Amino acid sequence: MARNPSRQPKTQEKEAVTESKKPTMTAGPFDLDTVRNLVNLMKEHELWEIELADGGRSIKLKRGGAVAHSPVISAPMSISAPISGPSPAREPAIPAKKLLEIKSPTPGTYYSQEKPGSKPYAEVGKKITPTSVVCVIEAMKIFNDIMAEITGTIVEIVVENKQPVEYGQVLFRVDPS
């Protein structure tokens, strides 16, 4: 395939498979239709990377961001003073507190309270211990109490009540100090 110089960089080109180009490729696990289907699945399921192997052959697709099909318009740049040193924005900032995360141990539905109208298990500013119940996750009609497993103060609740959650999804951020 000849590469069109007006196309986006190669990392973004992998995601942009156009329907107008129909080169003849041999049938197999990595023919053009398979690649198109993989790209569509990546978009549909918001995947950023996929890798497949078949015997000695393998393919790895990475999304490089949105592909722009409109022309790039740039404004003229003016420099008022020469830059003599590193930019203040690039200097290392004071490190923020290291927050710990409480993640979902299972997929299911997140519940912040035992029943509607009752007090939430966890609130921002609440001190927790490893045995504190911070929420309930319901999976297949089984309600699982989720323990904090760490000590600290809740500084952020990342999910909303009755929201579906995935395995490993961050539920809370905790300040251990």
Question: Would you kindly provide a written description of the structure presented here, covering whatever features stand out?
Answer:
By secondary structure, this protein is mostly beta strands. It folds into 2 domains: 10-62, no CATH class; 100-175, OB fold (Dihydrolipoamide Acetyltransferase, E2P) (Beta Barrel). The chain contains 2 helices and 10 strands; from the N terminus they run ααββββββββββ. The protein has a 4-stranded antiparallel sheet, with no helix packed on it. β6 and β7 (142-147) form a beta hairpin. The longest helix is centred in the first third of the chain and has 13 residues, at 32-44. The termini are far apart. Mean pLDDT is 73; it is low at 1-25, 66-83 and 85-93.
Summarize the model shown:
Helix content is 10%, strand content 28%. The chain has 177 residues and is mainly beta. The protein has 2 domains: 10-62, no CATH class; 100-175, RNA polymerase II/Efflux pump adaptor protein, barrel-sandwich hybrid domain (OB fold (Dihydrolipoamide Acetyltransferase, E2P), Beta Barrel).
What topology emerges from the helices and strands here?
Blueprint lengths: L9 H4 L18 H13 L4 E6 L2 E6 L37 E4 L4 E4 L15 E2 L4 E7 L2 E6 L4 E6 L6 E2 L4 E6 L2
Antiparallel strand pairs: 1-2, 3-10, 4-6, 4-9, 5-8, 6-7, 8-10
